[in-house]
């Protein structure tokens, strides 16, 4: 049975923020893409809290160099994506890097995807369908599967349940009704090389990835 578990999942992430936030994408058919900010199973941000992310949010299909134009609406950013198919998002400046207890800096990276057509990963941290249109997904980090990782599945009626990936990084999503499903997962990794975000060199990155799809 589904229960409210997203908050618990977010608290287990290494001090990303006092609030548990995600970025996720919603798209109806081939219409404009909506970028939401907040808690995918409850309330989302509005107004200036959304608008201020337009400058740092990249929305694209498969090439980060080909980003969509963003327009700030009251409850979401709207991305003008002409192409059909899956859409992705990247933002590493939702929050400024912060100092950890050991004196090093950490930063948060948000990845998001709408759709389950493409079976290849484009983002560093991404849930990828095993088969186009299917309900089984592999959680990948830089091309490698993440085993035994927590994934929260949020149903169209906003109920959520926590799952874990298997040894191959795979999760089978129980699709029990029509509507939009949201999957959320987090991962932490050391920054490899000289990683500079918002002018600050960081030593550790906390990733949050979301995937949305519509069951007909």
Automatic annotation (TrEMBL):
Entry keywords, A to Z: Signal
Residues spanning the signal sequence: 1-20
Protein name per its UniProtKB record: Putative transcriptional regulator
The species this protein was found in: Acidovorax soli
């Amino acid at each position: 049975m589904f229960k409210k578990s997203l908050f618990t999942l977010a608290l287990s992430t290494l001090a990303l923020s006092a609030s548990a936030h995600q970025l996720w994408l919603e798209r109806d058919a081939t219409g404009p893409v909506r970028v939401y900010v907040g808690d995918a199973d409850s309330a989302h941000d509005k107004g200036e809290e959304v608008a201020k992310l337009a400058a740092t949010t990249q929305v694209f299909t498969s090439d980060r160099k080909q980003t969509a134009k963003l327009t700030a609406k009251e409850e979401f950013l709207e991305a003008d994506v002409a192409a059909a198919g899956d859409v992705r998002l990247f933002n590493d400046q939702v929050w400024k890097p912060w100092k950890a207890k050991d004196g090093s800096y950490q930063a948060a990276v948000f990845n998001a995807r709408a759709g389950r057509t493409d079976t290849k990963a484009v983002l560093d941290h991404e849930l990828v369908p095993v088969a186009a249109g299917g309900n089984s997904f592999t959680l990948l980090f830089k091309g490698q599967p993440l085993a035994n990782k927590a994934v929260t599945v949020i149903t169209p009626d906003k109920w959520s349940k926590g799952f874990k990936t298997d040894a191959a990084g795979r999760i089978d999503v129980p699709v029990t009704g029509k509507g939009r499903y949201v999957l959320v997962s987090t991962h932490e990794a050391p920054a490899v090389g000289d990683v500079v975000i918002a002018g600050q060199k960081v030593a550790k990155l906390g990733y949050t990835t979301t995937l949305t799809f519509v069951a007909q």
